[in-house]
Q: What sequence folds into this?
């Protein structure tokens, strides 16, 4: 099968000769990309339910890749890094961006520390927060991360702690907003540098509005479907900028007060070194009550009371968790997004 892609400095024109030199998942995607069908098969993340199989139109993937290539000035001389599985949309799109731009794609096996053996200068990389945090934890990989020219970070939320750490590196870092259905990101948020902001900005001709639930509606004229209604509650600045507040599915109605778990989490993150999440339980008086779940062995009563005292200083009475639970290990999606279930 005839193909045209540059991988690890070598131009490949034939899929059969490529198969023995790259990860099977890459050659499998390329075989699917160059076949006669108008789509490839993708899977949703599974963060809000069972992962679903979804058909991704190749013309949508091309349109999305062009938006990214244009914004980040990806060209034939660029080095792109593929360190996410091509089984998922983020990995698939790095390959498509490479094909369209004629750039060189440097491939490494997906891991928590993908930069360990990288010697080349990287112009553009897509990472999940766990990979960024792990890279920053070692002086060698932190130096390599800082040398990457542009980084997009997606798949899960960037914690306040990680965001603070990224202020210290020169690489331009962007949070992404998108989903499998929108064929990767349709909006970006600058995380570090002078232009850093809590607001996402639209790419290309994408525009936003919100529905009666205060949830984001996306208008993406470059895609076949064009309009997407989400379950993401947002603060709309204008038709091309929004601030993400949390998931509609996660909102807690406690005594008639709406609580946004993700916003509470960002405020209390400095107080809890372990991973954690805020969720709810039924309550006879309030309807729902906020509870805190920490990824740890159980704490002593004294430790829990000390934390509750700290929480009272930065949260409103309704926001303060009414219970604290502990789990040895959280379940998570492929990209590292915590699945918010009490076990």
A:
């Amino acid at each position: 099968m005839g193909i045209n892609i540059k991988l690890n400095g070598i131009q490949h024109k034939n899929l059969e000769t490529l198969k023995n030199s790259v990860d099977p998942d890459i050659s499998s995607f390329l075989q699917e990309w160059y076949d006669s069908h108008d789509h490839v098969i993708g899977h949703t993340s599974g963060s809000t339910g069972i992962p679903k199989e979804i058909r991704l139109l190749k013309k949508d993937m091309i349109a999305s890749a062009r938006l990214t290539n244009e914004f980040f000035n990806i060209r034939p001389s660029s080095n792109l890094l593929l360190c996410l599985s091509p089984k998922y949309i983020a990995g698939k799109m790095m390959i498509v961006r490479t094909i369209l731009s004629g750039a060189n794609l440097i491939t490494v096996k997906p891991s928590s520390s993908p930069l360990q053996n990288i010697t080349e200068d990287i112009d553009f990389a897509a990472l999940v927060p766990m990979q960024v945090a792990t890279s920053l934890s070692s002086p060698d990989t932190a130096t390599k991360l800082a040398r990457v020219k542009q980084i997009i970070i997606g798949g899960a939320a960037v914690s306040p702690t990680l965001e603070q750490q990224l202020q210290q590196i020169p690489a331009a870092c962007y949070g992404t907003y998108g989903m499998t259905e929108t064929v990767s990101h349709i909006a970006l948020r600058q995380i570090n540098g002078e232009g850093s902001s809590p607001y996402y900005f639209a790419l290309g001709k994408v525009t936003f509005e919100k529905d009666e639930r205060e949830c984001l509606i996306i208008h993406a004229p470059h895609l076949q479907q064009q309009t997407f209604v989400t379950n993401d509650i947002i603060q709309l600045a204008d038709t091309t900028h929004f601030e993400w507040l949390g998931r509609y599915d996660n909102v807690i109605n406690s005594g008639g007060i709406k609580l946004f778990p993700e916003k509470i989490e960002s405020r209390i993150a400095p107080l809890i070194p372990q991973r954690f999440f805020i969720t709810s339980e039924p309550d006879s008086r309030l309807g729902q009550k906020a509870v805190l779940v920490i990824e740890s062995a159980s704490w002593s009563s004294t430790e829990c009371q000390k934390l509750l005292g700290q929480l009272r200083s930065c949260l409103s009475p309704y926001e303060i968790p009414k219970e604290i639970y502990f789990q040895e290990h959280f379940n998570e999606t492929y990209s590292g997004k915590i699945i918010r279930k009490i076990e």
